[in-house]
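@channel sequence for tomorrow's demo:
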Amino acid sequence: MNTFHRGIVLAGALLVLCALFPSRAFALTPEEARIQELQGQIEKLEQQAAQFRSSIATERAKADTLKKEIAVLKGQIGQIEAQIAATGKKIDLTKTEIGQIEAQIIDKRDDMSRKRETIGRMVLFLEQRDHEDLAASLFKYANLSSFLQQFHDLATIQDRLLGMIADLKDAKVALERDQAELEGKQHQLEDLNAQALQRRQQLAGVKGERDRVLQVTKGQEAAYQKQLTEIEKQKAAFFKELRELELKVVSGGLYIVHIKADRVPPRGTKLFSWPEDDYHLTQGYGMTKYAKRGAYGGAPHNGIDIASGYGTPIKTIGDGRIVANGTNSGWGNWVAIQHTNNMVSVYGHMSSLSFLKVGSQVKTGDIIGYEGTTGKVTGSHLHLSLYKEFFTYLKGDDLYFNYFEGTLNPADYL
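structure tokens (generated this afternoon):
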């Protein structure tokens, strides 16, 4: 038995004696005093060890959270890089198609030029024949049969002339069709270039977000929660102010754009497609738990929130026309689309303004932007609203749309 263990045994014996004879006073020997001192040190060390274990568990949890966020961001970066590569291939393919169409147009123009020259010579020949005297023409030939053969050849030339004119008209129509196709391909190329630029911006945003996570999130869970609480307070105050402003706009009729659906289809009518692939629903429509906490100034959530990851393409849920596109402190970057039944869908918190302009016609599944974190948000997601009555108005220099009135549950029609 070593000295330490002997000390523990002696200390235990002393405790037993004290319990048996509580009224008796014992004078501690130097060894016993040393044992008590060592026991006190052991207790302090055990307390410190417990604190270190707790701190290590906390730091490990934070590290795991950080690793997960970094893994998600790396996945998003990979996805956007793949999207950029795919868009680049589409651009190369479109350029090749444009080159082929331009070559066809050049060939058709050369062919048309040759036919014009031939037709010109034929017309000149016929004009000269028309001005010749019949007797003079007759004396040119040795006999009557040669003269009549000339008239037969002339009729053949006239038939060929009419045929070439018809061919020229057909070539003109084909050329106009090729030029229209070329213009369409050029517009497509411009859209692809704009998409590639947007994707590169998304990639820069995702990389910036990863750097932010590395620098800010690590070891600052408490600060992050505090920040979320502050954001929720700001959001509640913002929506309370927005409600008061909307009431003034409605009472005064101060609309910029005002669209009202003629008829609202029954709930459950599947009119539209989901705007993102591989999404998950983060908040539903109405008085959600988050809304009950006062996040929207006491009002219900006027749409649904879905998330697929920062930079995910956002697609229009149905055919229509872009009627508004703006940015403000609440919704960040947003776009509104009027559909054929005069219902309006709104897409909020996009990473940047849509590269499509107001007035652009869109089809179901067309990309109109990318998921982001603009506006009053606590994380990357898409806010989708659906309106039976939609209007826009100004608040300072920013363009806003109605939040509290005229909305429908988008999930009822997706």
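heads up for whoever presents: Confidence is low (pLDDT under 50) at residues 2-11, 13-25.
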